[in-house]
Write a structure and sequence with these properties.
This protein has 187 residues and is α+β, with helices and mostly antiparallel strands. It is built from 7 helices and 8 strands; from the N terminus they run H-E-E-E-H-H-E-H-E-E-H-E-E-H-H. The strands form 2 sheets. A 5-stranded mixed β-sheet has the order 1-2-3-5-6. It has a 3-stranded antiparallel β-sheet with strand order 4-7-8. Strand 7 and strand 8 form a beta hairpin.
Length: 187
């Protein structure tokens, strides 16, 4: 084991959030990189869940037009290695969306298998790297907004709250810690 290591901002935010909101959970940092950034267990250490954390910068204030500033809370960009996702040992991937304009933090907590299936349907299957945009609206909706079929028209539909695309809809995982915590507490 190497004696010196650091956690990145996303890992810190996820760990802090879990410890603050779920008093029966303990958060652990692995001593080496195995594709798992955090382990969460019950207090007795009998039930564990592994997490891969991705942290995204908000590009809403700097890259989006004025018509998007009020209806959207945060727009983050993530690069995902398709092979690492496919072979990921993590139970869940947690995307941290840190909104600058509204000083917000949103989390998208997706079971690894479901994330892989969704992204395969959305993105070109041959690309080694997946460029994923996750947008959160003030109406608490979350969308995968990279390479939308109708481009800017679909972006405006997302902002207006009228976009409908079941595969791109990540709302059910937005700030939904229940499935992860349920797995931790199953023992």
């Amino acid at each position: 084991m190497k004696p010196i290591f650091t956690v990145h901002a996303g890992e810190y935010l996820v760990g802090s959030y879990i410890e603050q909101h779920y008093k029966g959970a303990s958060v652990w940092v692995p001593s080496r990189d195995t594709g798992v950034d955090l382990m969460v267990s019950d207090r007795r250490g009998r039930s564990n869940v592994s997490i891969q954390v991705k942290f995204g910068k908000d590009f809403l204030p700097t890259h989006m037009g004025p018509e998007f500033q009020e209806p959207l809370r945060v727009c983050s960009f993530f690069t995902i290695n398709r092979d690492k996702l496919r072979t990921s040992p993590a139970d869940f991937w947690v995307f941290v969306l840190n909104g600058f304009k509204r000083h917000s933090q949103d989390y998208v907590i997706v079971p690894t298998g479901q994330l892989g299936r969704r992204l395969r349907l959305i993105h070109r299957p041959k690309a080694k790297m997946i460029q994923s945009y996750l947008w959160v609206t003030e109406r608490n909706q979350c969308w995968e907004a990279r390479s939308l079929e109708d481009g800017v028209k679909d972006e405006r539909r997302i902002a207006a709250g009228v976009y409908d695309h079941p595969v791109r809809d990540f709302t059910k995982w937005l700030n939904e810690w229940g499935p992860l915590i349920k797995r931790v507490n199953r023992a």
